[in-house]
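TODO from last week: model FUSC family protein.
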Amino acid sequence: MMRRTALRAGLVDIDGARIAEATQELRHRGRATLHDRLHRVRMAGGLAVQAGLAAGIAYLISHKLLGNPQPVFAPISAVGTLAASVGQRFRRTVELIAGVGIGVAIGDFLIYLLGTGAWQLGLVVTVAILFTIFAGASVAIVIQAAATAVLIVTLSPSTQNLEIPRFVDAFLGGGVALLVTAVLLPLNPLRVINRAARPALDLLAAQLDATADGLRNRDRASIQAALDRLRNNKEELANLSEAIEGAKETATLSPARWHRRSELIHYAEAADPIDRAMRNSGTLIRRSVTLIEDEEPVPDPMPDAIGHLAESVRLLKHEFAAGEEPEKARERSLRAVSEAGRGYGDGVGFSGSVVIAQIRTTASDLLVASGIEQEEANRWIRTAFGEQERPVGEPAEPGEAPKPPTAPPVG
């Protein structure tokens, strides 16, 4: 009753505002989640089609050509080869066959000595796992050995001569998987990498932009939120690394993709410096939070420099995707360093000096990601930063250009 009276009197409905804000946040999260799920579907779409095609072909060959009345293992092996280790499918096929061999050997030997039953099954699986671990085998071999041992123990009483078909199906499934990925349906490696790189680079650029805006407005909360979002980047980096390995494998195995090998070099060499740029940007953002907390000065060029870093990341993504030399990204990285030098000259506190140093380090990472050697990138950074880092009266380094290059050619 009092609630209604207050509302009629024209007072602010605080609870209603809170509910509206919470509802809006839930809607935003729902849209973000749907977008993420659709992106994952697009990322996995090619793999799903490859797996379905490989499973169907393996089934047909095993059933129609080899006369297997129950062709179960061949399609399972094909799907396992494709899905379990993207980027290492040839190795996965070898591990699959090795695991099957170990499982068959241990299963047959212990069945011969002990017979079949529940406790024999448990013992066979235990011995298969311990033996493969002792031999230093990979996780994939351990799993295959244990799974094959289970099949040998459980199916041997009702199915005779299971060992040879199991070997054949392992070879068949793995071979069909490689055939599909290399010849029948090879994915475009650059498209795969571009899709995987986009979330990681977009995340980095967005948080750098948020940090720049937060510094301009001295908004600690927004900078802290950017730091929290950037810290949750393990999935994006893992997807990028896996996509690079998968693309390299496709370009190696597939004759139709051999012409893409040289284009993949940029991405393969860019993975590590992008990872370092993420980490150094995290330090930059964390120190920006401290800078605001300690009420240190924020010279105007400092947030501008961070904004230029964000734009450099976006340009790097665009130029990689277009197959272009990333000259614009390099120029923007150097502009970020130049602005950082101006900010340093205007005067900063302790945390501000750390932010300036991290701008330089992140810009160096982005230059290396663009294809520049580390030593050359460091020289450009020193030149772009200007004279602020040298004590008064110290001469310039021998051979150092008086002005920073804007978009120098590679090599």
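Done. Confidence is low (pLDDT under 50) at residues 1-9, 389-411.
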